[in-house]
Amino acid sequence: MVKLIYFLYLLFFILGACIISFLKVIAHDYPQISLSRRSHCDYCGRILRWFEIIPIIGYFIVHGKCISCKNQLDFKNSIFEFTGGLTLCFFLYIGDFSYLPFFLMLVILGFSDSFFGYVYPIFYLLALPSLLLHFHHLHWLTALIIYLSLTLLHKKYPLGLGDIEVLTIIGLLFDLNSFLNILLLACSFCLVQYFGYKKRAFRFIPYLTWSTGIIYPLSYLMFR
To answer: How does pLDDT run across 122-153, given as a tens digit for each residue?
Structure first.
């Protein structure tokens, strides 16, 4: 029985890693998505072989370099896939997948914002199942205050409309304390980026995605 449980966690970890990889492709290619698309090297365009596209492991099989052009591959992809595997295992551990659609939305918006600096509102629909499942516990007043406050602030300071909408959805799903913790952690990531790389322009949704993925599990484990 114990071995079966470990095997189940392994399957969910692999599935989570694959989901992250798939969402990254969707975010990068949308709206020109092709069902016949083949994974290829970002540098030389060579079609990748089957063992090169295995989540996480594929990076180490090729020693982090393209077999053809020898350019260094981005290790961040393996980190994303590893995090996706852990996240899905966490949902399996708590036995509650109701927030999974919301996290899928965050991930794809985070990738989209990171790639292009904007998001497609159609991806907000991914969070709809989570909103419906928690409909009786949504924080309508908190979300309204967040939206109106940030919209007014946007008139004086150039905030991204996508940032405002994502923050509103987060405030709708989580209580005020969790929302503030998520916002504070995301801003902390920005400060680290600023002082470390002297970067003044930030694409905020990726930081919100990471901070939500950290605060939600910690809150659950601390207050369960």
So the answer is: 999 999 999 999 999 999 999 999 999 999 98
How far is Cα 169 from Cα 146, in angstroms, rounded to an integer?
A: 10
Residue with tokens 């020693």: 63
Q: Are residues 16 and 89 in contact, defined by beta-carbon separation less than 8 angstroms?
A: yes
In 10 A of CB 8, how many CB atoms?
12
Residue 124 tokens read as 């907000």
Helices and strands counted in the chain (H then E): 9, 0
**Start-end of H helices in the chain:** 2-29, 57-61, 76-94, 100-116, 128-133, 140-156, 161-173, 176-197, 204-223
CA–CA gap between residue 139 and residue 196 (Å, rounded) = 36
Q: What is the pTM of this model?
A: 0.90
Nearest to 21 by CA among 72, 85, 99: 85
Contacts 24+ apart (CB under 8 A), 2-5: none
- Amino acid identity of residue 101, one-letter, is P
Q: Could you give the CA distance from residue 82 to residue 51 in angstroms, rounded to a whole number? A: 17
Q: Dump pLDDT digits (tens) for 32-85.
A: 877 667 777 777 877 878 777 788 888 888 888 878 888 888 888 899 999 999
- C-alpha 169/C-alpha 124 separation (Å) is 9
Amino acid (one-letter) located at 134: H
